Amino acid sequence: MIVSDVVCPFCGCLCDDLELEVVGDRIVRVKNGCSLAEATFMNDTRLPAPIRRTTTGWEEISYDEAVKETADILKDADRPLLYGWSSTHGESQSVGVHIAERIGAVIDNTSTVCHGPSILAIQEVGHPGCTLGQVKNRADVIIYWGCNPTEAHPRHMSRYTTYATGFFVPDAHMERTVIVVDTRRNDTVNIADEFLQVEPGGDYAVLSALRAIVRGKELVIPQKVAGISKEQLIRVAGICKNAKFGAIFFGLGLTMSRGKYKNVRNAIELTDELNRHTKFVISPMRGHGNVYGSNEVFTWMTGYPFAVDFARGIAFYNPGETTAVDILRRGECDAALIVASDPGANFPRTAAAHLAKIPTVVIDPHVNATTALSRIHIPCTAAGIDAAGTAYRMDGVPIRLKKVIERGYPDDAVILKKIYDRLNGGWDHD
Amino acid sequence: MTELLVKNACVIDPLNRISMEIMDISIRDGRIVDSVSAAAEVIDTHGCLTLPGGIDSHSHVCGTKVNFGRYMSPEDMRAGRTPRSGKMHVTSGYYVPTTYGNSYRYSRMGYTTVLEGAMAPLEARHTHEEFTATPHQDMLANTLFDGNWAIMEAVRDRDVRRTAAIVAWTLSAVKGYSIKLTNPGGTEAWGWGEDLTSIHDLVPNFNVTPAEIITTMIQANELLHLPHSVHLHCNNLGKPGNYQTTLETFDLVPDNNNARQTLYATHAQFHSYGGTTWRDINSQAEEIARSVNAKPQIVMDMGQIMFGRTMTMTADGPMEFNLYCLHHNKWSNHDVELETGSGIIPVLYSKKSLVNCVMWAIGLELALLTRNPYQCLLATDNPNGAPFVKYPEIIGLLMSKRYRDEEFATLHDGTGQRTVVSSLDREMDWNEIAIMTRAGQAQALGITAQGKGHLGVGAEADIAIYPIRCRDVDPATEYRKVVEGFQKTMYTIKRGRVVARDGDVIVEGANNTFWVNPSVPDEFSVASDPEFVKKFEEYYTVRMSNYPVQDVYLPRGKCIRTEMNL
Amino acid sequence: MPQGVEVEHKGSPVYRASVSVCYMNPVDLMDLGIEEGARVVLTSRAGRIVLTTWTAEGVNRGEVFVPMGPYANHIISAETHATGMPDFKSQVVDVEVTEEPVRSVGELMEEIGGLRYDRQ
What we know:
Chain B is an alpha/beta fold. Chain B has 18 helices and 24 strands. In chain C, strand 3 (about 40-45) and strand 4 form a beta hairpin.
């Protein structure tokens, strides 16, 4: 059976033009997807049943037992942490917030170690952006700053930027100028018209220099800024000012290097400045398929996009205090529910280690590094494969993920709802 | 079967010409009926003011740009936070509350129906998700068409039928309620960082003018028999001298509908400025009101500003950028491909600013100078002019010259020379206020047929009971009681269920979303037009089959079908 | 010698196979006296980890590039300077040649108190 217009749930691009061939409960062919999509749909090995750690190994348990024990763990905890959320659909994310509110937990999502700093910058200076189709149809200058779409978002350039045919840019890359800024020559540099190789930690200075040049203050710029020549900076600023429509896409090169959210803030302010001369937009390259969705859902429900702490009875937000890595580092939480993410692999060691010290439950279709640190792992559907639901693309466009096959797993929204019901008083009915 | 009897209510129901009559209201299974059995639950209001549930005809509460406003403003989230309590979830936000925050605060004020001011079709799914999380108000979505490429091409080709067909397909695909135009043509120009300055300017690359877009869309709207009229945010919002644009725009509007207006001009205050610069800006509310008084085909809402901080958020991207250049506050922008734009920036309306004082006066002048209260409705373009929790204060100002004078005395002393409000003696009465806050909206939005906005037999039992004994209160002098009374109902009843009691929401909500499915003969349908489909697939970044909002997003959707009139 | 470590998010689902590596400039490998494929141990204040070397011209001299994952995280501190975000891209490390084996992800998890689940 052929299913068309399938949405790939893997990365923030949420490409929705995939064609899958389905045989029974397996996907056997993926057309139009990148290699990450193929792996997502075809190398989809699942944990067969819920498991619980024993003193000697692992034993399989029933879903009912798993739900009951998870609810007990959360109920007994003084400071539970609910983390992850980025690869599942909005329906689950909403239940997660309800649970956190009910038990006074901290709920955080993977932005915390990814584009959290971008959010902090946006909270300082705003976000002048647009949907990806605006870039596709209009942009003649594309800047990739501190990211590597060739590897991390393989179809970004063919669907939305460099190679995409746009209404006002019918000759695609012939009419577009691509500028890449990075500390090293990554694969994306190969297709760039200008490459600025910036010294590690030097992005902030380069952004400031560009802002100064755009404002006509090139005299204050030294001959070299963070490894980049003044001449190149002036040339690039000129390309930007003379663009009809410029789009900056940035990634972890800005959010993770020294300065973090200040780097992003500076890039946003450069964009603001350029808007006085021409049309310019800036957008983060979101990694997980539905991390933006978790920001959106958390925000309309609680007011804050990540790191929300309900312990005081209100929604409380204080990055550095209520963010997952910090809470784990301080050994502050005494139970954890990890949904659709892998902090065992993605968090610094001492933070991940704390997960092993406390009762941790994982709800995820796949075995991952965090499984080893958990007490219980409950397998569920994978949004976009065997569960339908809402996901938000990196530019904020909401798309419905499809259910393409049935593999007999419960939807994590259903599992979470059962946990919520037990926490709300249902456990008396055993 | 559930029955409720509201006894001894002092009812004002303008659509049924009832004004301050003490009567009983019988409710069965969510609707108002003639009588109920002795088993009915009884609420005795002891003569308190009882109105149909409030209806907000233009409010930004759900969707992409609203959520942008929230997440970029943690300082506002902290300002308005409340803990979980009973059935009420945690809320955050003062000028851009979270969805539960909006819902509870509207409910506390007796509001039961809200029209979301602007929804971009591509992002409609987001709006609908937030509608479901605003559980105590029935919701409707103004659907943006101002920068829509397919529409502009049809307008350029002077093809009204095609324009109507595109509107029909889009509204039914995204489950929208009505046509919204925000700075028509200007939002497309903003795609290149430009704007338009007159309704006769050509939109770059599309060669249509705002005037053409507006007139063609009005024709399309009527061709499709949509329940609401075209809902317009005029060009040149916020610019000194823009009243000319507004008057020119009003002159375009024919009188094409017997049941309601042919144009709803929203937040008219922002479009009533005389002068040429910020230095000599003055009020031209008199001119605008004069035009509206002579044109029954136009209904406007005030767009009142109130002093204090708030958040501006509109699809009018270029206008928001201008505010950024003026104030240097944190600015967000979000243009939506092939459709529209948006911008978000916080503002502070200050009594020390002469411009802001003039703006404040203009909103009141518009209401006081419009003869027929059905033609000037109470709104603040929430949150652009002020958060909706300020409506009771506006009611107080409209009903009491003394209150206005006391406020006026605290304003910038140059205000008197630029405005006329201090010379206006009119004081609205209870009936007029009821029209400006529910009956007028129901009529303008075309939802009286759905049982909204009145308390006659057959109506939906959406009722607000305020702790005000109107016979014993003189609103002209006791405006404090008026303001306090409208801030918190004794009871808010939604579809026959008490949802709020003395300020607390006491049940989980289950709201309806009203949307329109205009049917168009097959030969005109754009879904089967290869040209439309080809352009869609080529220029959008989502597939046409993934664009429509699936039924699952409207758990209790109410579809209104209309037929195209050939 | 002190070096800089960069961590990049590698979205590939087979990343575990490729995250136990570090990319170094070929001249630095030459200085260490090894060829691509030999193993090195990276030591920071937060920990030590054995990785397989790969060459990459794109990596600057004096820098080591380790893909995002449990190996990199073994030597990244959990300090976030009140931002919530650890210093993934500015960790200073010492690099030495080693014969020690590269451990599996399961072993890494067990070292911090976990119990690997190997059944599929």
